[in-house]
Write a structure and sequence with these properties.
847 residues, alpha+beta, flat, disordered C terminus, ATPase binding, V-ATPase_116kDa_su, proton-transporting ATPase activity, rotational mechanism, transmembrane
């Protein structure tokens, strides 16, 4: 798998000539294989002008029906089953008929259910009106009867000859003079009841009497189908004009009106009749719902299989629309990319499709010659895919370009761990990742994990490697939640006296052998801890940065060698390697020598005066014999390399041909070693290269099988025109590249100091949380304070150190790989190999 990732798979452009009768099955089998990327040969046609537009429309209609079934299933409270129906092979035509029948049946059931539910809601509201309004009329009649009885008793008991005649006239009732009041009953939403009453009063100028009764439980509105809190109302009025106004106001407020009689006997009869109808409707609705639930459950069991079949068929017809049709020969012509290793698999697949479709003519498979750059394809697994995605986020590798994903598997988690080094935090991170790994199958089968959880689960192996490397670097730093441990033996130092804790290194006496692994635990807690760790981590960051940048430059050599570009080797790789190591490689050497000898030399002074005064004596800053002459040599190499990189511009693939050898281009010139210092040779080299390269440009990818193919391709390439070669433009471009590399070498090295800065910040934050929270709470000798301190310590550790610091270190490691490492060799201007595969069909419906 590592060799598969080092360079992308060899690709070839293939033409397939498929008979019409086996075209559908061939594309289907290629989709199951997933190793062929089709090219659109009908790009000039609109989707409606293509051959299989009608079939795609059919699939879209079936997809609409399936979405309708899914919505109805979810609305009914059922979740679509994800289990596959084994042994149920169904044709697309049969599925279309079945989906139409099921849709018609489901729509009819929905319509009937809505009608029955609306009738049931209306009857339920009518029953409430009969009950509440009947109670009001019964109460009013009881009060009126009691008052009448009381008046009669008062008149009979207190009547005399002195009683005024006017009272008798007032109490006497003349049927001809009585006023007949009409009334309207119904239900109005409770939130509109006050406005309803106010509008009625204003519209009739107070000539109405309104009585409302509150219904405790919400009722199902027949119109909207939603539960609404309502009040039963009774409006008494006089005259037709008042009645018309009341009816209009009821319609405006969405009040449902129902008939009512003031006859008690009729009221009882109506309530009994409505209750009977409600019981019958309830039974009918329950039976219909049960039948509908059974139908939806049956649909839910098969919906995933139907959905997958429709998506496959739709993708097959989309692919067939990309093929060109030869009407006379009754065949389809397809072109596309495939890996070279998949040639036999594709041919066997086409033969199987021909046999299964009973075709008399087999498909033709032939390789095409092309100058087009092939797609990039890396065979990855669930472990390496996440690391490859990190590289692809910067840019997809060019075809057959050295892939930094191989080295990212190790360097990315290691640089993260340098900034995150704490083996206690690393263990916590590893345990969290271990949970994802143990539940990998269950979590991968879930369709929705959430954005953050899905991203974390996708990078579970990256996080696992980050955690393991963090444990390793934490053991080197000897930090477990900022607490040192003597895991590999006792410390090599002991305190000279009791004041050792506040003393410098002179207060420590070496009494044993050097601590075998990592930082000696005695350094922690001393006043010299911070200066010591600063110096250690800063120099270590420079060493790691120079090593990784050298790796990037070395990979540029392998790129040039693989592409047989000798000019890039001699006039880009060699000068860049010499320049970087003459400056920062020399600095790395001084750091290692200073560590080994224990010298007190000032490396800042050495590096600055190597350019300001390269011939001066070093004095106390001399670390080894011959250092002065080495510095002068490095200084001259840096100047010469800048001139060489600036002068040599013939480095791109479209200028330097693979067919032109370096010896042929430079024959008769001066030696290569002396050319590093001479600009005139570079000008001659450009002229000579251009003369040879004009004949061979554009052959970066041309598989040649014999001499005739080579001659034919050369004749074909000579027939095309070439752009004019402008020396000034290429020279300016290379000059800018030189300035960018020289300045980038300095800035990139300084950028690696972020390893030191973030490592120090992580260590100090961990120390602050441990000393100022946990130890401080422990010192109070109070259980409550101790519990609060532990809770605050855990929350701060998880929230700040395990989440925010992890994200921060991840982003900084990402930047170091994208900018400081990959820009030394990685172009990243390729495009991914996207084969036609059923496994890559998106679960979401296409718009």
């Amino acid at each position: 798998m590592t060799m598969d990732l080092l360079r992308s798979e060899a690709m070839q452009l293939v033409q397939l000539i498929i008979p019409m009768e086996s075209a559908h099955r061939s594309v289907s089998y290629l989709g199951e294989l997933g190793l062929f990327q089709f090219k659109d040969l009908n790009a000039e046609k609109s989707p409606f002008q293509r051959t299989y537009a009608a079939q795609i429309k059919r699939c879209a209609e079936m997809a609409r029906k399936l979405r309708f079934f899914r919505e109805q299933t979810i609305k009914a409270g059922f979740s679509p089953s994800t289990r596959s129906m084994i042994g149920t092979d169904i044709n697309l035509d049969d599925l279309e008929v079945k989906l139409g029948e099921v849709e018609a049946e489901l729509i009819e059931m929905n319509v009937n259910s809505e009608k029955l539910q609306r009738a049931y809601s209306e009857l339920l509201e009518y029953k409430l009106v009969l009950q509440k309004a009947g109670e009001f009329f019964h109460s009013a009649q009881s009060i009126a009867t009691a008052q009448q009885k009381e008046v009669e008793e008062h008149r009979l008991g207190d009547g005399s000859i002195d009683s005024p005649l006017l009272s008798e006239q007032e109490l006497s009732t003349d049927p001809s003079k009585q006023v007949n009041l009409g009334f309207v009953t119904g239900l109005v939403p409770r939130e509109k009841s006050l406005a309803f009453e106010r509008i009625l009063f204003r519209a009739t100028r107070g000539n109405i009497f309104l009585k409302q009764a509150v219904i405790q439980d919400p009722v199902l509105d027949p119109v909207s189908g939603e539960k609404v809190e309502k009040n039963v109302f009774v409006v008494f009025y006089s005259g037709e004009r008042a009645k018309n106004k009341i009816l209009k106001i009821c319609d405006a407020f969405g009040a449902n009106r129902y008939p009512f009689t003031d006859d008690v006997g009729k009221q009882y009869h109506m309530i009994k009749e409505v209750s009977g109808k409600l019981s019958e409707l309830k039974i009918t609705i329950d039976t219909g719902l049960l039948h509908r639930e059974n139908l939806l459950q049956t649909i839910g069991y098969q919906s995933e299989q139907w959905n997958l079949l429709v998506k496959k068929e739709k993708s097959i017809y989309h692919t067939l629309n990309m093929l060109s049709i030869d009407v006379t020969k009754k065949c389809l012509v397809a072109e596309g990319w495939c890996p070279v290793f998949a040639t036999n698999q594709i041919q066997n697949t086409l033969q199987r499709a021909t046999f299964d479709s009973n075709s008399q003519v087999g498909a033709i498979f032939q390789v095409l010659r092309t100058e087009e750059s092939p797609p990039t394809y890396f065979r990855t697994n669930k472990f390496t895919s996440a690391f490859q995605e990190i590289v692809d986020a910067y840019g997809v590798a060019k075809y057959q370009e050295a892939n930094p994903g191989v080295y990212t598997i190790v360097t990315f988690p290691f640089l993260f761990a340098v900034m995150f080094g704490d083996w206690g935090h690393g263990i916590c991170l590893f345990l969290a990742t271990l949970y994802l790994l143990l539940r990998e199958k269950k979590l991968s089968s879930q369709q929705k994990l959430g954005d953050i959880m899905e991203m974390t689960f996708g990078g579970r192996y990256v996080i696992m490697m980050m955690a393991l490397f963090s444990i390793y670097t934490g053991l080197i730093y000897n930090e477990f939640f900022s607490v040192p441990f003597e895991l590999f033996g006792r410390s090599a130092y002991d305190c000279r006296d009791s004041s050792c804790r506040n003393a410098y290194t002179v207060g420590l006496i070496k009494v044993r052998d050097t601590y075998p692994f990592g930082v000696d635990p005695k350094w922690h807690g001393t006043r010299s801890e911070l200066p010591f760790l600063n110096s250690l981590k800063m120099k270590m960051s420079i060493l790691l940065g120079v090593a990784q940048m050298n790796l990037g430059i070395i990979l540029s050599y392998f790129n040039a060698r693989y592409l047989r570009n000798d000019l890039n080797i001699w006039y880009q790789f060699v000068p860049q390697l010499i320049f970087l190591n003459s400056l920062f490689g020399y600095l790395s050497l001084l750091i290692i020598v200073k560590w080994c000898t224990g010298s007190q030399a000032d490396l800042y002074h050495v590096m600055i005066y190597m350019f300001l005064s390269p011939t001066d004596d070093l004095g106390d800053n001399q670390l080894f014999i011959g250092q002065k002459y080495l510095q002068v040599k490095n200084f001259l190499c840096c100047i010469a390399d800048c001139a060489t990189i600036a002068g040599t511009c013939c480095r791109t693939m479209d200028v330097v041909s693979q067919a032109v050898s370096f010896e042929e281009a430079t024959s008769g010139s001066m030696s290569v070693a002396f050319s590093f210092l001479l600009f005139d040779f570079n000008f001659y080299l450009l002229t000579a290269c251009h003369a040879f390269c004009q004949r061979h440009r554009g052959q970066s990818y041309t598989p040649l099988h014999n001499i005739d193919d080579s001659l034919e391709l050369e004749a074909h390439s000579d027939s095309h025109g070439h752009e004019d070669f402008e020396f000034s433009e290429v020279f300016v471009h290379q000059l800018i590249h030189t300035i960018e590399f020289v300045l980038g070498a300095v800035s990139n090295t300084a950028s690696y100091l972020r390893l030191w800065a973030l490592s120090l910040a992580h260590s100090e934050l961990s120390s602050v949380f441990y000393e100022k929270v946990l130890l401080l709470a422990w010192g109070f000798n109070n259980v409550i304070i101790l519990i609060v301190g532990v809770v605050v310590f855990v929350c701060a550790t998880v929230g700040v150190l395990l989440v925010m610091e992890t994200l921060s270190a991840f982003l900084h490691a990402l930047r170091l790989h994208w900018v400081e490492f990959q820009n030394k060799f990685y172009e990243g201007d390729g495009y991914k190999f996207c084969p036609y595969s059923f496994s890559l069909i998106s679960e979401q419906e296409e718009v």
